[in-house]
Write a structure and sequence with these properties.
The complex is a heterodimer of chains A (about 220) and B (about 280). Chain A has about 220 residues and is mostly helical. Chain A has one domain (about 1-215). Chain A has helices at about 1-15, 20-35, 40-55, 60-65, 65-70, 80-110, 120-175, 180-215. In chain A, helix 2 (about 20-35) runs antiparallel to helix 3 (about 40-55), helix 3 (about 40-55) packs antiparallel against helix 6 and helix 6 packs across helix 7. Chain B is built from eleven helices and 14 strands. In chain B, the strands form three sheets. Chain B has a six-stranded mixed sheet, sandwiched between helices. In chain B, helix 4 packs antiparallel against helix 5. The chains are: A mainly alpha (about 220), B alpha/beta (about 280).
Chain lengths: ~220, ~280
């Protein structure tokens, strides 16, 4: 476990040069939230997405420094490498979610009536976290298979297909089921979120297993 | 003599290249230089030994343990320097220390910072801002700071000026002084290996041509300078390979004194590892 901690620390140190960018992004979206009177969208959703994407960029740092080969000379296994990468990305996305939530609470107290209600304030960031994690679950194995450069192009195609796929399936379900859209939103706000979290967790674990299989067979140059 | 590293029947096939049945043994307290031209298989051998790539066949034993079954334990005792691979260039000395002390159980930060002082590496700069020599010294400092028993180094002196190279070679020689530590070092700068190596392993086109004590190579091997007529009289079994020059033949021989006794050839030059390698690769039989 100690070596995994070392790898996660490495990934966090690699982000040092991103700190300024992160601050600029946060300030920009907070201002946008204020202008549009909609902090939920601009902070609660954007921050987990941004932090999630920054987490994925840790592949680039290792790619540029060709670190993979060097890292595998450490007393670690390929499993440790993949596990630490997933944990790092997940941690960063959760940090973004919590930060977004805290900022919302702070600004809510400063500028009242900006948010609809407390349920939105909790459920929307969790939804964003699940959404980002789901995207990562598709994205990470692709990067392991095709590398950070090619992976980025394939990742954009996959995300586009995923969005079209999910919205089409949702539209079909709404059309053929006896429930209305409002019923679905109500269901989501009650117990539906637990199902989404469970599905996301399952996808994330499957994604990890696939990445591990790819990386174990991969020839490191 | 106890071996620190044993490689048996190592095979690895890529499309267009194959590492064929490599066998080598490195005793404790010794330095083995791995030589060969670019693409001969030196780095593939090192990557196979370190289990970075999946080998097709073979057995690697380090410190008496099988690499395949004891990877984590063995790697605690190996220090590695790779020519083209390290951590991110945006890290500084302190960051690297914090990472490494969470990677190696035996990480010794006092020793690490002692090497940093000794190598005069600036603490306020990031790795990216270092010169090539400084970068290599930092890699070596990292490789030495968890008290490894075996150093595996891939081209550690490439791109360095003679002074920096000399400093680094001194460090390697200090490392093996206690007779328990060993080094496997690949380099295409054969003169460096002539200074420090005890054994030379020569790889060409994925095949291990020989592993021999360096002194045996330098003392016994020679290059006979012959005329065409003299060359025609030499039995094929008495030389390794030859190279035809404009006016004479350079004939690589394995045993100078024996050759002298048998043939009446006046000029038999001492040879260097580089010349041996060149005639092996470029010469004919």
């Amino acid at each position: 476990m100690n070596s995994i901690k070392g790898l996660i620390i490495k990934d966090f140190f690699n982000l040092k040069s991103y700190v300024k960018t992160i601050i600029v992004i946060m300030v920009f979206y907070i201002i946008m939230g204020f202008i549009n009177n909609n902090l939920v969208t601009f902070v609660s959703i954007i921050l987990p997405l941004c932090f999630g994407m920054i987490g994925i960029s840790s592949f680039n740092y290792d790619n540029i420094a060709k670190s993979d080969k060097y890292i595998l000379t450490f007393p670690i296994t390929k499993k440790d490498v993949v596990k630490s990468r997933y944990l790092h990305i997940l941690c960063l996305t959760i940090v973004g979610t919590i930060l977004g939530f805290i900022l919302c609470i702070i600004f809510q107290s400063i500028k009242e009536k900006m948010l609809a209600n407390i349920i939105d304030m909790i459920l929307i960031p969790i939804g964003a976290l699940c959404g980002m994690t789901l995207i990562q679950a598709f994205e990470i194995p692709i990067i392991y298979k095709y590398g950070a450069e090619k992976g980025r192009i394939i990742q954009m195609i996959v995300i586009a297909l995923l969005m079209v796929g999910i919205s089409s399936i949702t539209a079909v379900i709404i059309k053929i089921s006896p429930f209305s859209l409002d019923d679905f939103i109500y269901m989501l706000k009650t117990y539906g979120f637990l199902i989404i979290i469970a599905i996301t967790t399952i996808f994330y674990i499957i994604s990890y297993k696939i990445s591990l299989k790819i990386y174990s067979k991969k020839e490191i140059d | 003599m106890e071996n620190i590293l044993e490689v048996q029947n190592l095979c690895k096939k890529y499309s267009g290249f194959e590492l064929k049945n490599i066998n080598m043994e490195l005793p404790k307290g010794m330095i083995m230089g791995l030589i060969g031209e670019n693409g001969a298989g030196k780095t593939t051998t090192i990557k196979s030994i370190l289990n970075i790539i999946n080998i097709d066949n073979g057995n690697i034993k380090i410190l008496g343990l099988e690499m395949a079954k004891n990877e984590k334990k063995i790697k605690e005792d190996i220090g590695t320097v790779l020519d083209d691979s390290f951590l991110s260039e945006y890290l500084n000395i302190t960051d690297i220390n914090k990472i490494m002390k969470n990677i190696y159980k035996n990480w010794d930060e006092t020793l690490y910072f002692k090497y940093i002082e000794q190598f005069k590496l600036p603490k306020d700069k990031i790795f990216r801002e270092y010169s090539s020599g400084m970068k290599m010294k930092l890699k070596i400092a990292v490789a030495l700071s968890h008290h490894p028993k075996l150093l595996i180094l891939d081209e550690p002196t490439s791109g360095l000026d003679p002074v920096a190279r000399n400093d680094i070679l001194d460090i390697f020689q200090d490392f093996i002084q206690d007779e328990e530590h060993s080094i496997l070092v690949s380099s295409h700068i054969t003169s460096d290996l002539e200074h420090i190596a005890d054994y030379i392993a020569f790889i060409d086109d994925g095949k291990l041509i020989f592993t021999k004590p360096k002194d045996e190579l330098l003392e016994n091997y020679g290059i006979a300078k012959c005329s065409e007529e003299e060359f025609k009289n030499i039995d094929k079994n008495d030389f390794i390979k030859y190279k035809k020059n404009r006016y004479e033949y350079d004939v690589l021989i394995e045993n100078k004194s024996e050759f002298k006794r048998k043939y009446n050839i006046e000029i038999i030059d001492k040879t260097s590892i580089e010349e041996i390698m060149l005639i092996y690769i470029k010469g004919e039989k």
